[in-house]
Amino acid sequence: LGAGAALVTVLPFRANAAIEDHVAEFTGGAEVAEGGVTLTAPEIAENGNTVPIEVAAEGASAIMVLAAGNPTPPVATFNFGPMAGAHRASTRIRLAGTQDIIAIAKLADGSFARASQEVKVTIGG
Amino acid sequence: MASGVRPRVKVPSTASAGETVTIKTLISHQMESGQRKDSEGNTIPRSIINRFHVTFNDETVIDVKMEPAISTNPYFEFEAKVPESGTFQFTWYDDDGSVYEDSAEITVG
Amino acid sequence: GNWSRLAAQQALSQDQLLEFDTFGNVTLMHLTDIHAQLVPIYFREPSVNFGVGPNRGEVPHLTGAEFRRFYGIEDGSPSHYALTSGDFTALARAYGRMGGLDRIATVVNAIRADRPDALLLDGGDTWHGSYTCYHTAGQDMVNAMNGLRPDAMTFHWEFTLGQERVREIVEGLPFAALGQNIFDATWDEPAEHFKPYQFFERGGTKIAVIGQAFPYMPIANPGWMFPDYSFGIRDENMQAMVDEVRAQGAELVVCLSHNGFDVDKKMAGIVTGIDVILSGHTHDALPEPVLVGDTIIVASGSNGKFVSRVDLDVSDGRMMGFRHKLIPIFSDVIAPDPEMTALVQAQRAPFEAELKEVIGQTDTLLYRRGNFNGSWDDLICEALLSERDAEIALSPGVRWGPSLIPGQDITREDIWNVTELTYPEAYRTEMTGEYLKVVLEDVADNIFNPDPYYQQGGDMVRTGGLGYRIDISKPQGERISDMTLLKTGERIDPARAYVVTGWASVNEGTEGPPIWDVVESHIRKQGTVTVPDNTSVEVADR
Ligand SMILES: [Mn+2]
Ligand SMILES: [Mn+2]
Question: Out of the domains of life, which is the source (chain B) (predicted)?
């Protein structure tokens, strides 16, 4: 191997075209505003196999969660019924590496809102 | 049916009328993603819980479409309105057709 | 320098070290990161400790002469020796060892004589780091520390004893085990056994002490040893706890923290209402608190070298002022407390023969602290390469472990002091050049990410047989370059598999002989060890 050979650089995965397809499927192609939905996730995952996340959007009928850097990005869609006390839910998800998590909410007025956060997954010790 | 599947739910036993209560649920399940390989290099087929549905007195609280990215032993926390005494019904749907159920009573007093 | 031992000793007295104009109505004593060092040791502070982002050039990231200039410390003075790295061997010969729980007891007792209701708070990393600690699963430290009568404690390495053992010890502790960020991993609720805070009535003041355990436990240490627990910084919950204790009438809010200094600084800027943060984990010893807004942050060193005393004037429900002293524990100057001497001796007696066995000698100052390498780690890497027959060795960038000065015997105790942990297997495996780079980049980002909340507080993984260049100001993936196999001088080939050895893997099921056996065997063969200067890491000019 020559001295000039470059090593592979590992960068966080970013949203790409495939992600936009999933979003479009959920929104029917409608416009998506930033804000109006809250996504809470740790800055650093304690364990990439079980990363706690929480989504919330007042009055939302549904919130979809995507993990942009997973082999298959869809994670879950939360549909809220008439007995939902607050339009909020938490779960634990698998992340294949450092990446952005995206939440898209369908709000009460039928419009869509988006939030994203990067979660770092480290190989540790 | 996947073996050793056990649902657990945490619901307060009492509430005041119209109160919002926090509910936590956990079900032991491998959630085989369909992306892992066994020691011979063969893909282990996907076998997950794909839907989680919660009702209170037969009306939906939350209905979750679940993908393989949900962790082993799926956990959910959410909130429900409690206008009167009644029953929470929890249902998990497995890829293999199995259905797991649990329920909890709450008394408004 | 050429300091005579006698002159140095004469310049110091116990009274002088303890001298303190009692102030206000409340006294806090802080002790942290003892790492099971029951008896006096040498401990060289780092010569390289870079700050990044907002902390570049800020304390605690000043070292050596820069540190002495900043605090007005004279060359050759006791503070030079205790707090900085230059001229260490000569100063160590002049001033002697530091620490020892029996000397600490003398200091604690003297402060209590002055202010009987002073609070003693232990910042954690207490039940880890020695031969006796390993063989008693932390019981030696529990017994000895109970003799000091602490009022509260928080945690880090303690959890590597395994969750059952931790619960067993905590159930019997005669003081509060605190951590507002210790959560039950299954239900995401505050964990049983650990309270978020404890109230104390002292000096007519209602004091709340809130615990903050090490946030990155399952990342930096093997999470499989404590699967029931989840940690994290949880600064929103910290704010909720501060508000809760204030609502219950707390006039002074103290955070007993194992966040690490830069994380504490950031947290102090986000969470309002904390008066004092007693900071641990990053092992910094600072002669003055750092102020962030209305919060003072106190750093009390490691390995038993220091006790911090903070006197506070709390009136009308507010902290009105403070007086602080970082008390260096010069073991030849502070008289040992006889009761504690006996207690420590009782813990060590069953192991005395094993502890004292001489394995070899050293010609070189053996120390650990520094961002990129330490001579102890160089020796450990050499031992790994030779005993495990590998091309590359990796050794974790931990900050504990006392120093040895040239001419000293190396005993079994000394080896265990720098290697003891509960996952000691010295593995031997293959890694591609590409993966090695991923490892180095990953660890580098845990230290040099400009956002303190991404920093885990250790130092860079030490490498044997492998050189590299690092530009710490770059983002993850771009910091490491010019990776070289030192044996041949060739660049590391991303596609080639290299035989790699290391220890302290966080992965369950790691196999290999314990690292202390590897190091002992190597030193025995050497007789007298000489460790050449490490020139394998080039830090890019910033
Ligand atoms: Mn420590
Ligand atoms: Mn620590």
Answer: Bacteria
